Amino acid sequence: MHPTHQEHKHDRPHRHHYDADMLDVEEALDRILAYFAPLPSEDVPLLDALGQVLAESLIAPISIPPLDNSAMDGYALRSSDISRASGESSVELRVIGHVPAGTVSDRVVEPGTALRIMTGAPVPRGADTVVAFEDTDEVERRESGGSMDAIGVRLAAEPGENIRPAGEDVEQGSTVLDTGTVLRAAELGVAASLGMATVPVIRRPVVAVLATGDELLEPGEPHRPGKIYNSNNFSVAASVKTCGGIPSVIGVARDTESSVEEALERALDADLIITTAGVSKGDYDFVKDVLARRGEIALWSVRMRPAKPLAFGALDAPDGRRVPHLGLPGNPVSALVAFEQFARPAIRKMMGKAMAPRPTVQAVLDDPLSNFDGRRVYARVVVYRENGEYRARLTGNQSSGVLTSMAQANGLAICPHDRARLEAGETATVQMLDWPEDVF
Q: CA–CA separation, 210 vs 232, rounded Å?
């Protein structure tokens, strides 16, 4: 799955020697994605497969519907018997039985006879059309207490009318869903209609999530001076789940080699390890040293704001696998913005999904976007619609530590690295984090 040491020699720095050149977002993403491939397949129950990618084409074992069946409640009969029927002159037929849905009648519709039939019930032999209840005198007969052994038909019908032919939806032996199909509600319904209880899909990646830092408290613990609550594990794990992955929250590694080592040991059975904090160029060397000793790590500066510092590498697992590791910044907004640009595509690739980026819109800015250091800016905004156009307003303080600004946002407005400023009234590309119904 992962390239050899030789293939990524330029990404493997020596200890205390870190990349000096700043990478574009796309270059960093290309380097990261080169380590990933779709995971193996597994058979899972239908509901568990929602959002996963089909690993093998589904071939229909039966036709759908398996037999000609009635498209409505009514009477199955011979169209030739009612060719002269009209509102003024009904044709009376003898009723020889009843066909509920789910049963096959052994009666044959002979000339002058009809079978009462329910929607979905197989059409009996001899019948070539179905007439709806409302086109007969059934209601009047019931209300007057008349005999139900006969029925008056008031409307002529063509052969095949109100009959769904066998194989109309799916023919036995045909390919119903192709390999690579993302399974939505409709596709799962199709699989269920074919009698399949499980489907073969590319399995979901398990993503270990690990925060680092002596300053972190877990939610629920009493607050203490100098400490902050660990929010990154929860926002990152939730992001993993949103992407379709399976988060495995390892917890917090303290700023000691033994704590980092122990936490990584518990993370090595994952398909991807995501850490937050502890890997920027100014952080404690021993955190980076532990990561490098367990495999390889590259520290990058990415031409983006927030989330300039990024680490990527691979850790050696006891079973011989090389587990990719993505080190996100510790600031909570930076962690989420970096996750969107790098972790989300990696998870999608492991799931066999297309490398589709988040959808974007062109929106008129209510506020200016400043770019003071030549990096691509991802500004937290609310996109709304006004007078037929999309508009975007900043969610307030854009500091990378202000997590509420991310919670209020539904998109990231982009100021290119080569623009010092986008003025209010200019149009910006906005990467949508949500697709709110009241806007779209």
A: 9
